[in-house]
Amino acid sequence: MTNMIRAEVITIGDEILFGQITDTNTQWIGTELTNIGIRVTRKSSVGDQADAILQIFHEAHQRADVIIITGGLGPTKDDITKKTLCTYFGVGMVRNAEALALVTSFFEKRGRAMTDLNRAQADLPANALYIQNDWGTAPGMWFEHDKRIYVSLPGVPFEMKHLMSNRILPKLREHFKTPVIKHKMIRTVGIGESFLAERIEAWEDALPESIKLAYLPSFGGVKLRLTTTGNDEATLDQQLADQVEKVLPLIEKNVFGFDEDELEVVVGRLLQERNLTLGIAESCTGGFVSSQITKIPGSSAYFWGSVVSYSNVVKVNQLGVDPSTLDQFGAVSEETVRQMAEGVRKALGTNVGIATSGIAGPDGGTPDKPVGTIWIACSTEQRTVARLLRLGQYRDQNIQLTSTYVLNMLREELLSMNAEV
């Protein structure tokens, strides 16, 4: 059996510890290393202090075969990663001619003068293998030390990703002759983790030892991740496909996609396949649903627009909601949200309209309609359906969950439509 290759990811920079920037690098690196058969077993963040960086290097050496380091490679005095690597390896700094040529070209193309600090970007620890950074001045560095691989990369995400994808990952695969790790993600919506686990318990108990299952809860749904490891990619893919085929009949109603599918992407695909257009009326979600739809490239092919009808005046004047409906039932009601969905469809001339109206919180609730009371609706040329959501006390969560549930309602309606308009 192939030995597991262990990796540790270390991010360097006070700004990460202070919370001034979000560390997205570690998540991305973990995914990419896993895809080539290297298991990330630990991640650490450390500030710009040499003693702390040296300590984490020594600790990582005891735990991992590969140590990936990001950050601290800029030209200013607070960027101390290269100097600390020199101390750790017991070597001096040398100016790399190839790195200097790249830095010089970088500034010449932009018509900018170089400073001594810029030239110092080409100074590397003497034992470093220079890894060219095509998108910036901070170099990548590869070290082989005491049967361990150390990789130092810039912290800027797009520079780091380019170096990892094009330089480091191929080199790691070649160095370690890594096994294949395959994942299959089943993406569900509208079912809680415990209910899902109960429904698939017998299938889960029957999984072969070579396939591991993980539950990954998210807003409004759960991702089921199947993982297996081996040497033949085609065989692994088939093993995972066989298990998906077995579990789908148990949860098919709640499965909206696989792997990297997002709910808004799936909805857009269904709209295009059926040659349908969409309009959105939002009250409590304040445009969040529309934002989810429009973040998808090409959404203009099916999304025509939205009305954020936070005010009852807008509900009446732009969406055609009957004032008597608002007087009798209120803005947060099945009657109102149905008229909103129908009204936006008619106002924008679309085939489909969806709507949200509710009390997102943290205040505004009443005994009859507490915070988290939300109505959603979907209107097509055939029918209008509405649904009551009873969510929690937290505004951001309520907005995100409402968006998920109304998009899933739209998905279900689109799947039920057989005739193309």
From TrEMBL:
Domain of life of the organism encoding this protein: Bacteria
Gene3D superfamilies, sorted: 3.30.70.2860, CinA-like, MoaB/Mog-like domain
Domain MoaB/Mog: 8-175
Matches recorded under Pfam families: CinA, CinA_KH, MoCF_biosynth
Membrane spanning stretches: none
HAMAP family: CinA_B
Protein family: Belongs to the CinA family.
Entries under NCBIfam families matching the protein: cinA_nterm, molyb_syn, PncC_domain, PRK00549.1
Name of the protein: CinA-like protein
Lineage: Bacteria, Pseudomonadati, Bacteroidota, Cytophagia, Cytophagales
